[in-house]
Amino acid sequence: MPENSNTFSSLTAWRRRVLARAVHRGWRWVQERGAVTAQTPGPLRFRRIGTGTRLAFPQGTVFGEPWIELGDHCIIGEQVTLTAGMMPDLDLGPDPILTLGDGVVLGRGSHVIADTTVTIGSDTYCGPYVYITSTNHSYDDPHTPVGKQWPRAEPVEIGPGCWLGTGAVILPGARIGRNVVVAAGAVVRGEVPDHAVVAGAPAKVVRRWDAEEGWQPPLRTPAPVPLPDGITPEALRALAALEPDEG
Fold first, then answer.
1. Three-state SS for 184?
2. What does the pLDDT look like over 145-171, one tens digit per residue?
3. Residues 100, 8: one domain?
4. Which of 53, 132, 154, 236 is least enclosed by beta carbons within 10 angstroms?
5. What whole-number distance in Å separates Cα of residue 172 and Cα of residue 157?
6. Catalytic pick from 24, 73, 111, 137?
7. Per its record, what are the GO molecular function terms (predicted)?
């Protein structure tokens, strides 16, 4: 009896492993087929989707695509929301509302809500769950529920080369300069100068680059050493496989 029980348990475990592998293979197949690119747009009809740009599957809420332009080689993570206009099927005029430059990365679960113009510059990277919006609720009337009051909308502009950390919130009217770091969880409104680091809620400049004195306050860690030119993925894997010398 114990021997039969062990055999049954081994067979059950084997079936579970086979089923798990099949589920994972199937999900990878669905992710690959469900991704949106210029060649495989699925039901989405963007104003422009550049070469090499990919929206991972499953996508978040997407509407107003005729007023959304995506540059080349953008990476849009899973469950990312991209919307132009307050609701689907509106006529927003002849010009784009939401524009992503080349090489923009939007991390998993991020939201970009463009009721009026939102521009994200080339090579700007966003961590997971970043929220960028051109619209905010108003609360002028103390007797009317906030959600029923007409919202305020102001354009948002994010310069090229920025890094927006996990959970950062970019509010209507924000104008972020070039190569700006927005700390995780920061809430940004108003103008942020080029080459600055902002943190907090509301976000404040905590470090800036000066052409003569460098970063102020000074950086506390040394600059990382870049990879040599010409290094290949195979070479990196070989380096990672090397064991440290034994002393």
1. coil
2. 999 999 999 999 999 999 999 999 999
3. no
4. 236
5. 9
6. 137
7. acyltransferase activity
